[in-house]
Design a protein that fits this description.
By secondary structure, the protein is mainly alpha-helical. Helix content is 67%, strand content 0%. It has eight helices and no strands.
């Protein structure tokens, strides 16, 4: 649902389509998440024991392999339902991956067009697809998957992604101040209160991830990975003499 923003620079009639996409996407996903979590809480106890031998004893807190949805389905409908739930989750994952792969390549494409990545990545094939970006993304994803550390990588990314969302919202305030006359086909809802509330809440979550003994082991590596990109960015700008292209639209 949020990947539409990755391709915002290429969306036709963004003034109409971006707000609609975000509204319906957020609403639908929020409703599904809410109903799913209600079902989990009604079916399984929130607290559990690591040493529990049954699904009810382990609860949501210590669901085996963190598969809460599968555990809830098994409690409600039996072991056969757990298999069906696992298959449905797998199908959903493939659908999610499809959107992530297609939208992710557009990020590299935009970076290259702004002079912040290899120029060849900013080229489209005859069908308008960033072919080189897809290839690079495929190779990098394959290397990460082959590392066998998927769980750790996922934990690193959660913090890093949340941090970038915070920075994006902060950038909204900066652009509004530095470019007050810029054309903005899409206006941020509830500005400045909603973005400010998001920055405050998400920052507190980031801080909790960094300080909590349970999550800090993965949050700090995620932060270091992000910080490692700062010198790379300035080094790239220096050797390529790149300048960031101004926004076509703006926030």
């Amino acid at each position: 649902w949020n990947n539409v923003t990755f391709t915002a620079g290429e969306v036709k009639d963004p003034k109409r389509h971006l707000p609609l996409s975000l509204f319906f996407g957020v609403s639908l996903v929020s409703l599904v998440y809410f109903l799913a979590n209600v079902a989990y809480l009604v079916t399984l106890p929130l607290q559990g024991s690591w040493y529990g031998t049954t699904l009810m004893e382990r609860g949501i807190q210590f669901a085996r392999d963190d598969r809460v949805g599968t555990a809830a389905a098994e409690v409600m409908l039996g072991k056969e339902a757990a298999t069906v739930m696992a298959i449905l989750i797998m199908i959903s994952t493939f659908g999610c991956m499809n959107g992530l792969i297609l939208a992710g390549a557009r990020v590299y494409y935009a970076m290259a067009r702004d002079g912040l990545f290899f120029a060849s990545i900013g080229q489209l094939n005859r069908r308008g697809v960033p072919e080189n970006g897809l290839v690079i993304q495929c190779l990098w994803s394959w290397l990460l998957a082959a590392s066998g550390t998927y769980s750790d990588l996922l934990d690193y990314v959660i913090f890093a992604v949340l941090l970038f969302y915070v920075l994006t919202m902060v950038g909204l305030f900066i652009l509004r101040r530095k470019r007050p006359q810029a054309d903005r086909p899409y206006k941020a809802f509830g500005y400045p209160y909603c973005p400010a509330a998001y920055v405050a809440i998400a920052s507190l979550i980031c801080l909790d991830l960094l300080l909590s003994p349970k999550t800090q082991g993965n949050a700090w590596p995620g932060l270091l990975i992000v910080l490692a990109g700062v010198p790379v960015y300035f080094f790239w700008r220096r050797i390529r003499g790149a300048t960031v292209a101004p926004c076509a639209g703006g926030f």
